[in-house]
Design a protein that fits this description.
With about 400 residues, the protein is of the alpha/beta class. About 30% of the residues lie in helices and about 25% in strands. The strands form 3 sheets. A 9-stranded mixed beta sheet has the order 3-4-5-2-6-1-7-8-9, sandwiched between helices. It has a 6-stranded antiparallel beta sheet with strand order 10-11-15-12-13-14, with helices on both faces. Strands 16-17-18 form a 3-stranded antiparallel beta sheet.
């Protein structure tokens, strides 16, 4: 079945995010959209628009579904899957001080969520009157811009055209891969908003042809480069894992188009922090130069080290041997994941319907295996509980889970 496209809507306090969300919820746009918000009362939708419900999911009279995240986002997404046939798009709104990468990680972490939802784009609303001051004073504002695939420069009616042009350049400097669109009162075509793509690197090719550029705000910068050649899948997997293990906490956004040896299709990827998602893209044209284009946006990134690391993944023209697997994005059997979740609930005595995430993660601590299994358990009205097993997912057995009773985080 086709995955449900997800648009994450973020922006600093007062940028106009709520105005845009009201347009999505009330406009007669004809789309079946589910909207997840932090608190329903913050949006200010008129009560007559709501079809009452005792659940966290409300039905709007224009056909949209509105959800509140009073608990954790994962639980709401699982509830939405029970109503999958009632909507075609999902919009997730963050609070003004939130880090949008947390939501991106939620979409990439859980196997069930990845099977049914796919990130379409991160859209950031910027306040044309105050964004300059906000970028200077608040790291949240810089990270919201750095994480974006599209930026709506709002309130342009309150600034001069020269100021709007300067701000567009300023935002592009911080995030050269994002498309900046001037808006007034968050007026934007909802259909166009929903069709924005996270993988639209080719439309902004200049973003990866200008090398390493530094942002003048504290430590946030962009590393972008183009590298010709065929990549070895096994070596690329090891390199990506080492990068994410060492610098994952500082990577606010990454995306790229890669040329894998022996593949007729592009491989496109994106991610945040230590989370990575990749898939096959379009087929390379017959006369097209197969270039690897990569962009990393984050804190204190070493551009030369990244470029040199990628070069170690290139295959020589006369290199023999068959390709391995690009297992950094490989999917584990859902039966294996379900079995581990059952063991966790049994051994640690959690309720039978407790949401659990199981994910392989990199680790570079001395004495640890390079890949470990991380487990997150979501209990209602409690912070998530974290566990770690020093094995890959396919190596985990019941004894591994039972040992978590005495030692939930063996390498931390």
């Amino acid at each position: 079945m086709t995955k449900i496209p997800v648009v994450i809507l973020t922006g600093f306090l007062g940028a106009g995010k709520t105005t845009l969300l009201n347009r999505i919820l009330t406009a007669p746009h004809g789309h079946r959209i589910a909207v997840v918000i932090n608190e329903f009362g913050e949006v200010g939708i008129d009560h007559h628009l709501i079809v009452a419900s005792e659940e966290e999911i409300f039905q709007m009279n224009n056909g949209c579904i509105c959800c509140t995240v009073q608990g954790d986002l994962l639980r709401v997404l699982l509830q939405l899957l029970e109503r999958r046939d009632t909507f075609d798009y999902l919009v997730v709104e963050t609070s003004g001080l939130a880090d949008p990468t947390v939501i991106v990680q939620t979409l990439l972490l859980d196997q069930r969520i990845r099977q049914d939802f796919e990130l379409q784009a991160v859209v950031t609303v910027a306040d044309g009157m105050h964004v300059e001051q906000q970028l200077a004073a608040h790291h949240e504002a810089r990270e919201q811009v750095a994480c974006a695939d599209a930026i709506l420069l709002n309130k342009t009616d309150l600034i001069t055209p020269e100021e709007a042009e300067a701000l567009t350049g300023r935002l592009t400097e911080l995030n050269p891969t994002a498309r900046v669109t001037p808006t007034r009162n968050a007026e934007v075509d909802i259909g166009e908003l929903l069709e924005m793509r996270a993988f639209d690197l080719e439309a902004r090719r200049h973003a990866v042809e200008n090398g390493h550029r530094h942002e003048h705000q504290p430590s946030v910068g962009t590393v972008s480069f183009v590298q010709p050649g065929d990549l070895d899948k096994t070596r690329l997997s090891h390199w990506f894992r080492s990068v994410l293990a060492e610098k994952g906490a500082d990577i606010l956004r990454m995306k790229g188009i890669l040329n894998m040896h022996g593949d007729s299709h592009q491989f496109v990827f994106h991610g945040v922090h230590s989370m990575f998602e990749g898939r096959l893209g379009r087929e390379w044209d017959t006369d097209e130069e197969r270039l690897n284009r990569l962009v990393f946006i984050g804190r204190d990134l070493d551009g030369e080290a990244l470029r040199s690391g990628l070069k170690t993944c290139l295959r020589s023209e006369h290199e023999a041997g068959t390709d391995g697997e690009l297992d950094i994005y490989r999917d584990v059997s859902s039966f294996t994941l379900d079995q581990i979740c059952i063991w966790v609930r049994q051994a640690l005595e959690f309720p039978s319907k407790t949401p659990i995430i199981v994910k392989e993660v990199p680790c570079v601590k001395p004495g640890c295996p390079p890949i470990e299994t991380a487990i997150m358990v979501f209990l209602e009205a409690e912070p998530p509980r974290f566990y770690k097993i020093q094995k890959t997912i396919n190596e985990v057995n019941f004894d591994s889970v039972y040992n978590l009773i005495e030692n939930p985080m063996p390498c931390c």
